[in-house]
Amino acid sequence: MKPPSEKRLIIVSNRLPVSLAREGKRWSVTSSSGGLVAAMGPVLQNRGGLWIGWPGVSQLKDARNILNRATQGIGYTLVPVTLSQEEMKQYYYGFSNEIIWPLFHGLHSLCNYDPAYWKAYRRVSQKFARVIIEETGPEDYLWVHDYQIMNVGEDLRAIGMTTPIGFFLHIPFPGLDLFQKLPWRREILKGLLAYDLVGFQTVRHKRNFIQCLRGMLPEIKIFGKGNIQVARFEDREVRIGHFPIGIDYNAYASGGQSQEVEAEANSLSFALRNRTLILGVDRLDYTKGIPYKLNAMRIALRRFPDLLHKVTMVQVVVPSRQEIPQYELLKNEIEQLVGEINGQFAQPGWVPIQYIYRSLTRIELLAFYRTADIALVTPLDDGMNLVAKEYCAVNGDGKGVLVLSEFAGAARQLHRGALLVNPYDLEGVADAIHQAYKMAPQERTERMARLRRNVQQQDVFRWVSSFLQAGIEQNLADFPQQALDSDAFDETFWAEID
Question: pLDDT tens-digit profile of 1-31?
């Protein structure tokens, strides 16, 4: 345990912000993807705190030393939690992603309620708690993140931790009618009530949680109105709030203007000259609604002949959870749809959809954001969706149009500038695509200006400070950055380790 005189911000998540991978006799250390990494990396940088999580490999004895050697200079320490392959299979791919993920996104029919998954979920939670208790001290503020480790707070209390602990759920929280289908519903709720502050992305998610508390724990008392409410259960009081996550706006805005991104954007513009670029960037996941989006594009091409040969849709799909059979089926469905649509509408010198199945480098991603005339962000359900905010931040010329699902958490903040759509309404999405294509330059500029102001004002640093203020009546400035010589937090920082 660390000396008690230090005050640090401690982040705990399923994955560390980097992943280890074996390459022959060497280990490569690469930046992990995902919204949490993008959000918390710049926040924690140079503040001397800890990030605790799984490093991406199983039972590696020297993981901590390898991580420390690879990440010198970022200004915080990575602490690995080692998990076996069987634990990852049952806890992560099983309970987290075959039960909680589909259920919390309203897709109950995809759940696999294997009792062994719950047992593994509890064992891994207890393993996380043992690592945390060894690494933290009484002055630290512990912030636990997301659905994979919801019960860690309860396990920490069981082994004696009394300091404040916050929890933030990055994905939606379902309503009572869905949540009550979970066999371990009361255990999850009681686990979340072990925290001092439980945060959600939107008002709707917070209300759903409170509805579940009232419906399943009748002895609970809920007090207050507004952003923060208080739940009194047994001998504890737990604050419940909504805190919409943001991005590092300045990093994206300035990054989009860099020479490297400009050169890449110029190449894209030349390749797509005289065509409107419609961009989709999604992780491979059934909640992202990619087949619905592609079918809406098919309808748009059929209904609006003026789009033919004038627009190109680039759909980027980032590989994810390939170990789960549903994801492989989804990948096959997407590829079949792309082939069908291109076969139906392609003309000499033009195909309507270009499909990219890989992770993009940061420069490539920013170049696509900068070049895209229309961003099509249409998840079926999403806690927030940071792609929408990143696109706005990079769109410095103000000419882009954001078409956004009304079921993304970001819609509550961005509704005044975006074209909101119901992703299940294929004709409605097709109409929005055509509306965005025909939109006058002045309207484009006005809408994007509103979007960019919102994203800038509601950035990730404000998100962190609002959570800390609600949790411990402090803000990010109370965890000052140290004057260290560190590189930016992106994929170019990480190197191979002998």
Answer: 454 457 899 999 999 988 777 777 677 777 7
- Indicate if 404 and 434 belong to the same structural domain: yes
Secondary element (H or E) of residue 237? strand 236-242
Helices 35-44 and 460-472: crossing angle in degrees, nearest 10, is 80
| Total count of domains within the chain | 2
Phi, psi of 419 (to 5 degrees): -90, 105
Question: Within a domain: residue 2?
Answer: no
Find the range with the poorest average confidence among 63-72, 312-321, 363-372.
63-72
Residue 166 lies in a domain: yes
Longest Cα–Cα distance of the chain, Å, equals 71
Asked if residue 439 and residue 488 are part of one domain, the reply reads: no
Let me know if residue 378 belongs to a domain.
Answer: yes
Query: Up-side HSE of residue 228: CA atoms within 13 Å toward CB?
Result: 12
One domain, residues 326 and 405: yes
Q: Are residues 281 and 182 in the same domain?
A: no
Q: Is the pLDDT of residue 295 over 70?
A: yes
Domain with 81, as residue range(s), is 9-245+460-497
pLDDT confidence tier of residue 59, bands split at 50, 70 and 90 = low
* 216-247: burial string, b at 16+ Cβ within 10 Å, e else: bbeebeeeeeeebbebebeeeebbbbbbbbbb
Q: Is residue 113 part of a domain?
A: yes
pTM of the model: 0.93
The mean pLDDT of the chain is: 91
Phi-psi map region of 121: left, alpha, beta (phi>0 left; psi -120 to 50 alpha):
alpha
**Tens-place pLDDT, residues 415-453:** 999 999 999 999 999 999 999 999 999 999 999 999 999
Task: State the pLDDT at residue 490.
Answer: 43
Rounded Cα gap, residues 96 and 112, in angstroms: 10
As a residue count, the chain comes to 498
Which amino acid type is present at position 343? G
* H/E element, 15: strand 9-15
**C-alpha to C-alpha distance for 107 and 110, rounded to whole angstroms:** 6
Show contacts of 484-489: CB within 8 Å, 24+ apart: 484/46, 484/73, 484/75, 485/73, 486/45, 486/46, 486/73, 486/74, 486/75, 487/73, 487/74, 488/251, 489/17, 489/31, 489/41, 489/42, 489/45, 489/74
